[in-house]
Specification:
The structure holds 2 protein chains of 2 kinds.
Chain A (H helix, E strand, L loop, with lengths): L2 E7 L5 E7 L6 H7 L21 E4 L10 H7 L9 E3 L12 E5 L4
Parallel strand pairs in A: 1-5
Antiparallel strand pairs in A: 1-2, 3-4, 3-5
Chain B lengths: L1 E2 L2 E4 L3 H12 L4 E5 L7 H4 L5 E2 L8 E2 H12 L5 E4 L3 E6 L5 E5 L4 E4 L1 E4 L5 E4 L7 H4 L18 E5 L3 H10 L5 E5 L9 H12 L3 E4 L2 E7 L6 E6 L4 E5 L2 E4 L3 E4 L10 E2 L2 E3 L13 E3 L4 E2 L7 H19 L10 H4 L1 E2 L5 E2 L11
Parallel strand pairs in B: 1-9, 2-3, 2-10, 3-6, 10-22, 12-13, 12-18, 13-14, 21-23
Antiparallel strand pairs in B: 4-5, 7-8, 8-9, 11-19, 15-16, 16-17, 20-21, 24-25
Helix pairs in contact in B: 1-3, 1-7, 5-6
Classes of the chains: A alpha+beta, B alpha/beta.
Bound molecules: flavin-adenine dinucleotide and FE2/S2 (inorganic) cluster.
Chain lengths: ~110, ~350
Amino acid sequence: MLDITIHITDREGVVHEVQAPTDMAMNLMEVVKGFELAPEGTIGICGGMAMCASCQCYIESDHQLPQQSEDELAMLSEAFFVKPNSRLGCQILISEELDGLKLTLAPEE
Amino acid sequence: MIKTDILIIGAGPTGLFAVFEAGLLKLRCHLIDALVQPGGQCTEIYPKKPIYDIPGFPEILAGELVNNLMEQCKQFEPGFTLGERAESIEKQADGSFVVTTNLGTAHHAKVVAIAGGLGSFEPRKPLIDRIEFYESKGVSYAIKDPEIYRNKKVVISGGGDSALDWSIFLANVASEVTLIHRRNEFRGALDSVEKVQRLKQDGLINLITPAEVIGLEGKDQLEAVMVQKEGEGARLLLTDAFIPLFGLTPKLGPIADWGLEIEKNAIKVDNALDYQTNIPAIFAIGDVNTYPGKMKLILCGFHEATLMCQSAYKIIHPNKKSIFKYTTVSGVDGFDGTRKEAPKSVVKSID
Ligand SMILES: Cc1cc2nc3c(=O)[nH]c(=O)nc-3n(C[C@H](O)[C@H](O)[C@H](O)COP(=O)(O)OP(=O)(O)OC[C@H]3O[C@@H](n4cnc5c(N)ncnc54)[C@H](O)[C@@H]3O)c2cc1C
Ligand code: FES
C-alpha cells in the first residue's frame, strides 16, 4: 500500500479527506501544507524542527503514534491551546499504521 | 530623517545580499528589522544548524552564512535600524517614500525593497486574560534594559534559554526572581540549567514547576500574577513585573495594509522582470514574495535581490545606463575607500 487516508479538520472546521503517500518520508505537517489546508506562513514555520508549534494538532482516533521526543514535549509545554491529545504534526511520520487517522488542526496562535 | 537610495525592510539573507549587489551599482542601502540582530530566520530560528544547498558551500552553519553576508556587504556601509518594525509608508510628491517604524524613526528613499521573509518577528504572547492591558504596565515580552528591574519583584515564565538566562541575570539585580514553567524539564544549555538549579538552592531564584501563570491582577499597574501549580489550587503571587519569554513568531503585520497585492500571506510580484510589486518602486524579494513557481530558498532570494537592484538603479538614475561588469574583472570599490581586486597576472619573457 502506498497511500493512506487521513481525515483532517482545518482551522475553520471543514473536514478534508486526503490521501497521503507513505513512501516519501513526509510528516503530518507537510501533508497539511501540501494540500494547502492551512494558509501559507501559518504552519511549518520552523521547518519541522519542533521549535514553533505552528503544526499543533489534536489527534482524534486511537492510532498507535510514534513516541513523543523530548523536543516535542518541550515545545508543547510552551505552546498555547494545548490539550491532552495535542501533538506536533511535524514529528509524526506518515506510515501505513496511520491509515484512517483523524485529527483537527489547533488554532493559529 | 534617515536618507538612503534603497530602503530594505528585513535584514535576513536576502536583504543583506541586496546591500552587496546595490553597492556594486554604487547605490546605498539602509535596513530595518524588528529583530535586534541581522540574519532573519537564519539567526533567529536555526543559527547553529547546517545548510547544504547554498551554491558553492557543501555545508555551512546558518549563523556563519549570515556572518559571511555581513562581511561581504561591509564595505558598502549599510545603515541599520534594528529592534523596530516598519509600520507605515507614505508616497511623497516626487515619487519617493517615507517609511516610519513603530518607534517613530523615519526613513526616506526612492526605492523600497521589502525583504520581510515570513514577516516581522514578534513575541509569542501567552493567552492570559487582559494581558494587553498590562503591557508597559508591568508586562513585557523582552528585556531591553535590565536595570529597570533593580530591587523589583519579577516573575519570568518560559522553559527555554532566554527564560533561564534572564532568570540568572536578574537574580543579581531584582529583589526577587520567580521562574515559572509548565514542566520540570527545561530546554536550554546544560550550563544554564545547572546555574538555575544552584541559584534555586541558594534561595536566589524561586522556581515554580510544573505551573502556569493563568491570570493578572492590579488596578492601573500589574500588582500580582495568579499561579496555578499542577495538582494545587491557584494562588496569588505579588510582583512588579511579569516577563513571558516564549520565543518569537513571524507575522506579516502592517505591510499587509500597504496596498500591495497579497496572495497566500505573501506579496505578489512581477517575476518576469524585477520582482516589483503592484506599486511602482516597491519591490518584494526573498521569502516574502510570491509568483508562479516560487520557492522559499535562500539562493532564490539572492537571485531576486540581484535583479531588483538593476531596476532600482534605473529608477534612481533614470538618465544613466548601468554597465554590467564581473567583480573578478572590475574589482569591488567600497564606499569606505577600500578596494578589492584580482591580482594582476605576471607578464614576463622567458629567455
Ligand atoms: C529550520 C529552517 C531551515 C531552513 N533550511 C534552509 C535550507 O537548508 N536552505 C535554504 O535555502 N533555506 C532554508 N530555510 C529557509 C531560509 O531560512 C529562508 O528562505 C531565508 O531565511 C529567507 O530569507 P529572507 O531574507 O527572505 O527572509 P527572513 O530570513 O525571514 O528575514 C526577514 C526579516 O525581515 C524582518 N521583517 C519582516 N517584516 C518586517 C517589518 N515590517 N519591520 C521590520 N522587520 C521586518 C523579520 O524580522 C526578519 O528578520 C530554512 C528555514 C528554516 C526555518
Ligand atoms: S513545524 Fe514547527 S513545531 Fe512543527
